Amino acid sequence: MKSTLNTRIVLLWLLLALLLLTACGGHNWNNPYALEDRDKNILYTVFTERPKHLDPVQSYSSNEIQFTAQIYEPPLQYHYLKRPYALVSATAKEIPTVKYFDAQGNQLPDDARAYDIAYSVYEISIRPGILFQPHPAFASDAQGNGLFHDLNQQELASIHKLSDFPQTGTRELVADDYVYQIKRLAHPKLHSPIYGLMADYIAGLREYAEVLKQVEQNRPKEKMFLDLRDYPLAGVQVVDRYTYRITVIGKYPQFVYWLAMPFFAPIPWEADRFYSQQGLIQKNITLDWYPVGTGPYMLTENDPNLRMVLEKNPNFHDEYYPSDGTPEDEENGLLADAGEKLPFIDKIVFVREKESIPRWNKFLQGYYDASGIGSDSFDQAIQLVGQGEAMVTEAMTEQGIRLETAVAASTYYMGFNMLDPLVGGVDEKSRESARKLRQAISIAIDYEEFISIFANGRGMPAQSPISPGIAGYREGEEGINPVVYDWVNGQPRRKSIQTARALLAEAGYPDGIDQRTGAPLILYFDVTARSAEDRSRLDWVRKQFQKLNIQLVVRSTDYNRFQDKIRKGNAQIFEWGWNADYPDAENFLFLLYGPQRKVGNNGENAANYYNAEYDLLFEQMKNMENGPGRQLIIDRMVEILRFDAPWLWGYHPKDYGLYHSWYQNVKSNRISNNNLKYFKIDAELRAQKRKEWNEPVLWPIALILAALAISFVPAITAFRRHESGTAVHAAS
C-alpha cells in the first residue's frame, strides 16, 4: 500500500504542475498589472523624474505639469486640434476682452498707443455650477464648519495619507477661488517662480507681497494659517460670485496666455486652511503632494518613486470633444468623437521607469500604450524614406504601431552662469575674456553631430532662443548666428575649430592653458544623468571641450538637487531646456531678461544674464503687438544674445511618438498640457493584443515535466519491488 501511495503522490504533483501551467494560460505571466484591471479603461504611461511641486503656485517643470494640467483648471485653455494654436474657454464663459485706461482712469480706444496706456483691465466670468473634486477640506458639519480644519493629536494619529480621512465634500467654484490663487503668488513662504514677472504686471502685487511679509513676521507662530481673504489686492478684485477683474500695468498683450496656465487656476481657501495644519505638514499631507482641483482628473495615488495614479473626477463638469479641426484631422479620424463628453479614460497609471530599455520592451509587449524613441531603439522603430521622411519599420507596422511627429515649440540649451567669475566675469576685463571663452565653446560644440548621434536627426540646431513656428523666428541666411556660423552655398556652416581656438587664445587660454597661472583650464558641468545613454552623451560633451584642450568635470545629480543648485547659483555650466508656455517670442526671450534671474529673484533666467540694452528692448517689445516694428526689436535682442553667448543655443527638438492601435485621438500639442482628457483607449483590443504578444510557450516545460515523470518510472518500479520483497520476507 505504501509504494502505491508514493507513486500516486508523485503523479499527482506532476498533474498539478501541468494544470497550473494550463490555468495560467488565461493571464500573461509577464503582465505587471493586476489581473482584475485587464479589460478596464486605463491608460498606462511612464514618468522618469519625480515631481517636486504639485502646488500650482510653485510648479513650473514639464515633469510636474503633466499632472497639474489634468487636475487644475485655469479659466482658459488651448483648442486641442486647431493650428495655429488658439485660446478657448475652460471654466470661463468666453475669452475675456481687455479694456485700456490712461493714468487718470479714462477709458482709451482699442487701438491706443502703448505708451498712453496706464492700465489694462481683464474681466473674467466663469460658468456657474462647476464643482471641486471630492476632498476632506470641504467636509463640514451642520453649521458649515470644516470637520478637519482643526485636527487634534488624537485625530491625527490615524491619518497617514489623504484617503485616511473618513469623509469628503465639495462646493461650487466661485470667482474668489481664482482671486485667492493670484494672491498666493505673493505669499512669502511659497516662492512662486513667476512672482517677479507678475509683480511687474499685476497692479499692487509687489506691494501686496510686502504686506504679507509684514503680517507673516508679526503673526504668532502657533497660528499657521494666513487667510488671504483678509488682505485685499488692489489689482485683483471680485466683481460678483462668478466674475473677477485683473488690472495689468500698462499694455501686455501676452497676459491672456497666462490665463491658460495652472498658475492662474483656482485654489479654495478651505484647502489652504486644511493644509496649513502642522500635523498634516509633518506627515507630508500638503497641497504640494495632494492637489485640489476642478479638472477632469484627481490624484488618488502619489508614490513618486514608483507610480502615480490619476482617476476621473466624479464631479467634473460637462465638457465635450471639439467638433472643429483641420481637414487632416478629419482624415486621421480625430473628429470621430466630436461632441462626446470628456474625459474618455477612467484612470491613468504613471509608472516610474528610469531606464529606456525596460520601458521600450514593455511598450512592445503592450504594457505601455505609447512610447518615445530612444537612440538605442531608433533603428528598430523608424526607417527613413524619400527625402528623409520618417516611417515606422515593417515590424512596427505589423504590430499596428503608428508614428506621430511634430516640431516642438521647445529649445534645449547649455547655459553659462553669468555670476561665475570664470565663465561670467566680475569686471569689464574679465567679462570680455569670459565672453570670448563662451563664443569659443559655442563654436566647438558641434550640435549637428549631437543631433545626428543622440537624437537620430530629430531636431535642428538653434540659432537663438526662439523656436520655429513662433512669431519672431527668422529662417535662412538672416536667421543664422554669425558668431558660430557662416552662410555657404545656401546653407549654414559651423565655423572652424581654428576660429574657436583663436577666440580661446584671445580670452587668455591659449591651447586651454591659463596664461596667468600656467594651469590647464578646468570647467564644471552640472547635469541630471544616470543611464548608459546619458553616460555616452556626456563622454561626447567632454570630447567637444577637449577640442579646445579644456578639461570638463561633470557633476551629475537628480533633478530636484539640480534645481536647487541652479536656484542658488552654484552651477558653472549647466544643461536645460524650455517648452513654450504660450506661442509668442516673449516667452523665450524673457528667459534671459535681467529681472528674471534665478539668484535673488527666483525667476526663469537660469543663466543670471544681464544686459542693460537687452532689458530695455525687452520692456519695449513685450508691450507690442506682432508686426514689423516688433520684429526689428526682436532682431536686435537676438543679435545681442548671440554676441554675449550666455547660452550655447543647442537645438530645437522634433517630437517622435509611437502609439499602439488602441490609443486614439492623439495629436501632438506641446503648448497645451491638459490633453489626457481627449485621449481614448480600446481596452478590449489591448487585452487581445497583449494576449497574442505575450502567450507563454508551455510545451518545453511540459516536455521537461513529462521527461521527469518518465525518469521516475524505473525508480518507482524498483522501489515497489523492494517493498514487495521486504513484505514477503517479513511474512515468512
How would you describe the overall organization of this protein?
There is one protein chain. The protein is α+β, with helices and mostly antiparallel strands and 732 residues long. The protein contains 23 helices and 25 strands. The strands form 7 sheets. Strands 12, 15, 16, 17, 20, 21, 22 and 23 form an 8-stranded mixed sheet that branches. Strands 5-4-6-8-7 form a 5-stranded antiparallel sheet, covered by helices on one side. Strands 1-11-10-9 form a 4-stranded mixed sheet, with helices on one face. A hairpin with a 3-residue loop joins strand 9 (297-303) and strand 10. Helix 1 (2-23) packs antiparallel against helix 23, helix 14 packs antiparallel against helix 16 and helix 20 packs antiparallel against helix 21 (628-644). The longest helix has 33 residues, at 699-731.
Q: SSE layout and pairings?
A:
Layout lengths: L1 H22 L18 E6 L14 H10 L4 E3 L8 E3 L8 E4 L5 E2 L10 E7 L27 H4 L18 H10 L10 H5 L5 H14 L17 E5 L2 E7 L5 H4 L10 H7 L2 H5 L14 E7 L3 E6 L14 H5 L15 E6 L3 H9 L5 E2 L6 H4 E4 L3 E4 L1 H5 L3 E6 L2 E7 L11 H17 L2 H8 L4 E3 L23 E4 L2 E4 L2 H10 L15 E6 L4 H15 L4 E6 L2 H10 L4 E7 L6 H4 L22 H10 L6 H17 L2 E13 L3 E2 L15 E2 L1 H11 L5 H33 L1
Parallel strand pairs: 1-11, 20-21, 20-22
Antiparallel strand pairs: 2-3, 4-5, 4-6, 6-8, 7-8, 9-10, 10-11, 12-23, 13-14, 15-23, 16-22, 16-23, 17-23, 18-19, 24-25
Helix pairs in contact: 1-23, 14-16, 20-21
Keywords:
25 strands, 33% helix, five-stranded antiparallel β-sheet, 732 residues, eight-stranded mixed β-sheet, alpha+beta, globular
